[in-house]
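Quick one - inputs below.
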Amino acid sequence: MNTQIRKIIMACTGLFLCFFLLIHFLGNTQLFLAPEEARKSFNMYSSFLTGNIFVKLVSYVLYLSIILHAIYALIISTINRKAGGHYSTDNRGRSSKWYSRNMGILGTIILIFIVLHFQNFWYVYKFGSIGLDPWGHKDLYTVVVTAFQQGWLVIVYVIAMAALAYHLIQGISSGIRTLGLFHPKFVRWINIFGMVYAIAICVGFALMPIYIYFTHN
Amino acid sequence: MKLYLKIWRQKDRVSEGKLVEYTLDNVNTHMSFLEMLDTLNNQLITNNEEPVEFDHDCREGICGQCGVVINGIAHGPLKNTTTCQLHMREFKDNETILIEPFRAAGFPVKKDLKVDRGAFDRIISSGGYVSVNTGQAPEANTIPVGHETAEAAFDSAACIGCGACVATCKNGSAALFTSAKITQLALLPQAKEERDQRALKMIAQMDKEQFGHCSNTEACEVECPQGISVLNIARMNYEYNRASFLKFKK
Amino acid sequence: MKLDAKIPQGPLEEKWSNYKKTARLVNPANRKKLDVIVVGTGLAGASLAASMGELGYNVKAFCFQDSPRRAHSVAAQGGVNAAKNYKNDGDSVYRMFVDTLKGGDFRAREANVYRLAECSVNLIDQAVAQGVPFGREYAGYLNNRSFGGVQVSRTFYARGQTGQQLLLGTYQALMRQVDKGSVQLYSSHEMLDLVVIDGKARGIIARNLETGELERHAAHTVVLATGGFGKIYYLSTLAMGCNGSAIWRAHKKGAYFASPSWTQIHPTSLPQSGDYQSKLTLMSESLRNDGRIWVPKNLEETRLANDIPEEERDYYLERRYPAFGNLAPRDISSRAAKERIDAGHGIGALKNAVYLDFSKAIREQGQAKIAEKYGNLFNMYEKITGINAYKEPMMISPAAHFSMGGLWVDYELMTTIPGLFALGEANFADHGANRLGANSLLQASVDGYFIAPYTIANYLSDQIKVGKISTQDVAFEVAEKEAHEKLHHLLTIKGKYTVDYFHKKLGKLLYDYCGLARNKEGLEFAIKEIKKLKEEFYTDVNVTGTAGAMNAELEKAGRVADYFEIGILMCYDALTRDESCGAHFREEYQTEEGEAQRNDEQFQFISAWEWPGMVDSEPILNKEDLTFEFVQPTIRSYK
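Output:
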């Protein structure tokens, strides 16, 4: 397998994950509704997702993407580390953005976060004991609200979203170009779009735990 | 001005190298960086020490032979400048300057500051050309090439093959070098016949030479003496994808 | 020895086609059994190696650089001439021939020059097909600019990097053959000696510059395309590694050396700023299309350039040569600059420069247009000097640039050693006593692509019966031993001074006495001084390191050792030519207006120097008379 194929795998899985984030984000905006309404619609939405065969398929693609993205990141980083030069004084950083050079570290933070995030909600929803809401759906909303009563967890989520934002800014523009977009004008647009997209989604996600922390205390 | 130099000395390909310190007086601010090294070497020879081996030839920024890492930056502090075009006015009196060879797995050190960039030749050799024999060419104006296309092709073709892109890339990737040639030839109608094979072969060779993956940090464009755009890399990706996935092969 | 240029019969326009019609050929099946050594991978060497590889010969290509792409052809900026007449401005092969012959002050062969102009047309086709991104009109057709010494626009260009683009095209063609296995590439190899067996060139001794090992390479023919030796002046526009060693060592093996003193001093280089300086950067002559050259009328001018009013500026080229103005040929421009500088009108810290002013062009065409044409040159100027040339005029001065002289070759580009060919700047051929701008890329390429493949085949056609040449021949052994001893001798001197110290001294002597202007006394003095300096070199040079490893000092020492001998020959050459022609300006022979005065009656010949066999003996002069059947020599006037 050559460098191009590995990069294409990174780009495709990464861009798919970006797209997933949008869906995930739109669904989760229900958390900003008034508590009772939020509880009803959020729980309904959650149970809809678990029952749908199409969503299930997508979720497998999602799991696979995360795994491939992480594995190839590891392979690529290992090769790159060996291929790149090391200097006793290194000021090469002046010519690139720090987050573009540290996608691996940002990615690791995000991966740890994903594990935590799965454990917080996905695991509990799938395998934990979870009560029903008045409308007969599993009451994930309450689990979420309870979780975000913990200040430390809110901070962890906010930090993770910051890492994700930087990861996305670089990832979107880089991934699109790996897929072959080279026209200067469109590349510029994509860079702007990627920046807006990354910031909007990550700030939005970060606001969710903050909002819940402050409105439910 | 007076300078304190720390220079990488390495006897040959297999020996271990180390940084050696030198002091140099009477450096003129109008000297070029390489003239400063000449001055050091003259001092070393006078003291019967072996001079520092460094690559250089045209000293006007076009042959691409010179290139060292100065204070941790390929070709030194000025952006888009070769080492030979860098002048001592960019440095301060009593400054310590650290000089190392370009480093990357694809660029083994030959001696002191000289590195082996033969990988670049092999990449070009693998497909960076138009397969036209001497005498086959049609009358030049039968192949019109629009002004903008010609200018864009020139922008890519301007690469001097110095290797600063590889040295400055944390991944030791040769994507900028390889893509500049692929892009130049992909743009020109007279070179389009071979574009698919060219992209595939050149990338395969690039990988064989132990260069890393491009992760689009864009550092190469900033340090490139010719300011070759990173969009060349995107174009290379396009050419690769087109050749691999879009073309139906018999 | 009687020099026979082997000019084919027939009218001028038919000589080359007549030659091609009757030249002997090599059967395709036999070609791979014939070995060809090409030394040098610039435009001439690489284009020949690629072309020969394409034809199926077994080629070995050598260059001292770490890659063929770095050969000094890369640095040519302005362009390449071709008689395409795309501008419909009256150009033709014949006119280009006349321009070149006249530019060379009628000191070149008609047949050669005509062939150069004739083949120029094919070169552009070839380069375009290779993907060289020449400047284009908006409709997609090739664009041209005008260049010094001519009144038509016939110069093709790729911004200010034409040499680089042409070289890369050739380099790619070469690398394609390397990939195919028809060319074996030896980069970081320097030729140390030519091996001659039974009077024929049969191989070379080369030193692997990385390991220091001496290698023997045998072939049926050896081609030297090693460029010019202008670096002999130390300060020149040439690359640091450019040298005359390959052709000099061939000369010592019997190849005649023609017109060594004809060195073009380029008018538009950056001035020297201090004694540490290692080279003078060239600013392309194409700048003279839009730049105006002037000096202040006042002596001891202290005002800044922009503060000097128009009427106090002396646009001396426009004044002296109204027809050509700032585009007067190089030798004339350089000498005019020197005249002004010597008269005390020089500018800059060392008073050694003149102004090249773009303010009028920027006013008329706009900064963007000027930037598009010369952007990289303006950037380069700013990088080196720290001055923005869009705002104030550039400072330029003359610098040694191109060797019109080189190994004597006949019409087939073969030297006086059978089987040894010389191409490009390494031969003396087509430029006469002065080369026109944008003709050097042309000559190098044409020699390599379109001429030598025919003439070398003609030579090789009967070589197939010779069989493989063995490197075990005693001639190889002797040559290797000599090369080895020479290197070791240099290492054992262990004196006080560096190689550069001697090179700088030699360069200064030559620039002062055998440069822009020469005279008898000065030349005789220079010969004596160079001989002394050479002696001093062999007792007092310090070359560190060993011969068995990479050693740049040793490489330099070997080249400088040859430079002393070349320098002496240059002075003899200049001394024995009692006339002024082209770049050769003898102060004793000038008109009242200070223009060069040719002496066609006595000096209408090429001086081809023969190695006397012993160091320090006087070189032997052979003459090749020049006959002009088609164009009668006129006084070169650009007024």
